[in-house]
Design a protein that fits this description.
Blueprint: H1 3-14, H2 17-24, H3 28-42, E1 47-49, E2 54-56, H4 58-82, E3 90-96, H5 98-105, H6 109-115, E4 119-125, E5 139-144, E6 151-158, E7 161-165, H7 167-173, E8 187-188, E9 196-200, E10 203-207, H8 218-226, E11 231-235, H9 236-244, E12 249-250, E13 256-257, E14 262-268, H10 275-288, H11 293-305
Parallel strand pairs: 3-4, 3-5, 8-11
Antiparallel strand pairs: 1-2, 5-14, 6-14, 7-11, 7-12, 9-10, 9-13
């Protein structure tokens, strides 16, 4: 591969020119000079330079995707020659939603690392919809109805969401018998989580409202619901233990969040994804398919109740 192409990939992967220079053992001034030379040769700006961060231009995104594909193919060719194509090794950057990553990914990472000790794993937990190129992530776990354009998405599970409230709240304010009765209750939701889009016996329905407490944190909403501050729409992966322990009760069970919202593992499109990416996806499938653990506990609760 052309050295300037390799330099460009290093700048993107490392998130900056100085870091790329350290990786390649060249000065920042030389990194800048060689990047400018590449852009001049191609007749296109590849990276927007700002005082805060680097951002790829559309041309830069296309070139980076193509070069990553070429590098993956070269790596695979070398592995076939050396006979180590089955080896899972190298850097692997993962991003996941904060609560989900803490509750359902982090506790199991040791199992993955024990199986693949040559993987250099890093994981970033954030509730932002992480851009894979901007964050230099190899794989993202997303809870959404739309994983995003131009990505390879592996659906791991449906994200079931139920209406629920703590017994203390229901004892104080009563249990709503109809969806319309929710207007008389204290509702809890983080920013941009309302209106609630539900599916009931007659199809999709929307619940408009204003959160009783304004917050940008879904974890705060969970704690408020457990404390009896109102009614919330919560994912089963988040609330199944509290449901099984009786700390919250499901209300209006005929209505749930849309089944189109799922749990996905997504990565950039490339003909030969690095073995570490493939191995981690297989690891996630083993954790969550065909029935995720939070669904299993709910099924067991239903059977006991029946």
């Amino acid at each position: 591969m052309d050295p300037d192409h390799a330099l460009f990939v290093a700048i993107v992967d490392e998130g900056g020119m100085a870091a790329a220079g350290r990786r390649l053992h060249i000065s920042p001034a030389m990194v800048t000079k060689r990047l400018a030379r590449l852009e001049e040769r191609l007749g296109a700006r590849l990276i927007h330079r700002t005082t805060r961060r680097l951002a790829l231009t559309p041309a830069g995104e296309r070139l980076h995707t193509d070069l990553r594909t070429i590098l993956a193919a070269l790596e695979e060719a070398e592995q076939r020659v050396s006979g180590v194509s089955a080896t899972v090794a190298g850097p692997l950057r993962i991003t996941a939603p904060t609560s989900f990553g803490r509750m359902h990914v982090a506790p199991y990472l040791r199992q993955f690392l024990d199986s693949h000790p040559r993987v250099d794993l890093s994981i970033d937990l954030t509730d932002e919809f992480a851009d894979l190129i901007a964050t230099r992530a190899d794989l993202a776990i997303r809870i959404t109805a739309d994983p995003g354009p131009g990505l390879i998405a592996h659906r791991l599970a449906t994200n079931r969401r139920i209406l629920c409230a703590a017994p203390a709240y229901l004892d104080r304010f009563g249990t709503p018998a109809t969806l319309a009765a929710l207007k008389q209750h204290q509702l809890l939701a983080a920013e941009r989580q309302m209106p609630w889009r539900l599916v009931g016996p007659k199809g999709p329905v929307s619940v408009e409202g204003r959160s009783h407490v304004r917050t940008n944190s879904s974890e705060v909403v969970r704690e408020l619901a457990l404390a009896g501050a109102g009614i919330a729409l919560r994912s089963l992966w988040d609330i199944s233990d509290a449901l099984a322990n009786g700390h919250v009760r499901q209300i209006l069970p005929a209505y749930e969040g849309s089944a189109q919202v799922g749990l996905f593992a997504v990565h950039l499109a490339q003909p030969n994804p690095p073995a570490a990416i493939t191995a981690f996806i297989e690891f996630l499938v083993g954790l969550f398919a065909p029935v995720p653990p939070w669904e299993r506990s709910t099924i067991a609760l239903a059977e006991r109740t029946y």
